[in-house]
Design goal:
This protein is mainly α and 363 residues long. The chain has twelve helices and two strands; from the N terminus they run H-H-H-H-H-H-E-H-H-E-H-H-H-H. The longest helix has 36 residues. This is Cyclin-D1-binding protein 1-like N-terminal domain-containing protein.
Length: 363
């Protein structure tokens, strides 16, 4: 074969490889999000290990394929590595499809599917760059640098992202997702505390500070205010509100961090794993809204609305724990937590009523 025909063969195979990966992506995308789950279905116990090994091998194949395009282009080696690259990615995708076919729908399947789809997406982009490299080589306009090194690294990153956190069981996948959300809760609270601690405590704002003065502002100033999400000062009343609600926020963090220790004993069949993750998402959203409501110039009404959302998330989490089977010890701890939470809510209600009476007297 001539050099020109060799290049043409390589280009054709690259296009076919891309088409194969597109078919794989469509197959993964077609996995039902909520299929009928048969918890008794046989599940190959070594499937997570098979997928893990395939990811490691595929990473090496990606490297070898990239190196084969290093000038001067070695077409036989490129074709050989391309076949291996494509086959191993298809095999990794097959692991996900096998898991889905065996009724293993849940958080673990979502993790596997999303991870492999990300790899497939980066693999297609990588092949696009290799195709451009092959075409530029055929026209004699090749560059001494490797234009595909960046995309090689992106494929590596997508592989590592899944391989380094690959769950072997539904419990592992749910715990990992839950702990990620716990970190979000802690970060939101830490960021808020650091922000408040750096503020100057000022006298309470005048009754008409946001009234007549605000009405006098022109449209341009109003637009500037919309872009100002922070404040350098906090009033004494606002700081007292933060301090009074701080124990409640700390209790919420304790509740969210409470579940992982009981996760292995929870019933995760019939889609309960996804329900747990959904519950966690609701929890962190409510927590974040409550924290945001505490920033300077907040109102009791906004805080109360946020607390209602928190109450709903707390009820959902408590019901989930009770229904999941956390045992006698777990129930005792949960009931003790609920008692403390009730006490802190009562304190807040008393303070809110006090602030309402103060506002009426000032009015």
């Amino acid at each position: 074969m001539s050099a020109a025909s060799d290049i043409q063969e390589l280009e054709t195979r690259l296009v076919k490889a891309k088409a194969t990966i597109f078919v794989t992506i469509r197959a993964l995308s077609s996995i039902a999000l909520d299929p009928v789950i048969d918890s008794s279905a046989a599940f190959p116990p070594d499937l997570p290990l098979v997928l893990s090994n395939l990811l490691k091998s595929f990473r090496h194949s990606t490297t070898s394929l990239a190196l084969s395009f290093k000038p001067p282009l070695t077409i036989p080696a490129a074709l050989q590595q391309l076949d291996k690259f494509t086959n191993e990615l298809c095999q990794a995708s097959s692991c996900v499809l096998v898991a889905a076919s065996q009724g293993r729908a849940g958080v673990m399947l979502d993790e596997w599917r999303d991870g492999v789809m990300d790899i497939c997406t980066e693999a297609v982009r990588f092949l696009d760059v290799l195709l451009e490299s092959a075409q530029s080589g055929a026209s004699g306009s090749g560059n001494e640098e490797n234009p595909y090194l960046h995309h090689t690294a992106l494929v590596w990153d997508s592989i590592d992202s899944l391989a380094n956190t690959l769950s072997a069981t539904e419990a592992e996948a749910v715990i990992r997702r839950w702990k990620m959300d716990t970190a979000v809760v802690k970060d939101a609270w830490s960021e808020f505390k650091e922000s408040i601690e750096g503020m100057e405590v000022a006298s309470d704002r005048g009754a008409d500070e946001g009234g007549k003065q605000g009405e006098a502002e022109d449209d341009d100033e109003d637009e500037d205010d919309l872009m100002d999400f922070g404040s350098d000062t906090i009033t004494r009343t606002e700081m007292e509100t933060v301090e009074s609600i701080k124990p409640l926020l700390q209790l919420l963090q304790i509740l969210h961090g409470f579940l992982p220790r009981y996760m292995p004993s929870l019933d995760l069949t019939n889609g309960r794993g996804r329900a747990i993750v959904k519950c966690s998402n609701s929890f962190i959203t409510a927590f974040d809204e409550l924290v945001c409501a505490l920033y300077p110039e907040h109102s009791s009404a906004v805080i109360d609305d946020a607390l209602k959302e928190v109450d709903g998330a707390v009820r959902e989490t408590s019901e989930l724990l009770r229904a999941g089977g956390i045992g006698k010890d777990g129930l005792e701890i949960l009931e003790k937590w609920e008692g403390k939470m009730k006490g802190e809510k009562q304190k807040w209600d008393e303070r809110r009523l006090g602030l309402g009476g103060l506002a009426d007297s000032l009015g």
